[in-house]
Amino acid sequence: MNSGIFKYIGSWLILVLLQVLLLNHIQISGYVNPYLYILFILTLPFNTPNYLLLLLGFLLGLNIDIFTNTLGMHAAATTFVAFIRPSVINLISSRDVLELNQLPRISELGFSWFFRYSLIMVLSHHLFLFYIEVFTFSGFFHTLLRSLLSSALTIVLILVSQYMTAKQN
């Protein structure tokens, strides 16, 4: 059990550092900003208690907010994603998947399931984050385009990272 905790602590540190030191400096035409750090929430075990999901989501977003001086926007967005995660998993999964104690990873549940899961979660995160950032609907389509393009790049990075870290048989 302790090795699992250390694995998740290491994952947290790597994703936060990667986000604040590298990915936050990627801006393509002011539209595309990848946010890979939400992969931490996406890959937590299915049986993670809801209170722990919310706490970890808030703390993860708060870490990003501290480094980027964004006044709680990431904390709100990752808490939202942690909140909707159990509903999304129940929506796209059968009972068999949830009872097998599998982890939400591409290597365990396949590309199709993981792609649908990450698409819903990443799009929800980005829409929430970008609309709370502008806090107006006056530039609705501009913000929507930004959310869609950033989601596409984030999903590509998530899929690549899943294939890179998959256990080789």
UniProtKB/TrEMBL annotation:
TM region positions: 6-23, 35-59, 71-92, 113-132, 144-164
This protein's UniProt keywords: Cell membrane, Cell shape, Membrane, Transmembrane, Transmembrane helix
GO biological process: regulation of cell shape
Keyword Repeat (UniProt): no
Membrane topology per record: Multi-pass membrane protein
Origin superkingdom: Bacteria
GO cellular component term, pick one: plasma membrane
Main location, first listed in the record: membrane
Subcellular location: Cell membrane
The keyword Transcription is assigned to this record: no
The family this protein is said to belong to: Belongs to the MreD family.
UniProt-recorded name of the protein: Rod shape-determining protein MreD
Organism: Mangrovibacterium marinum
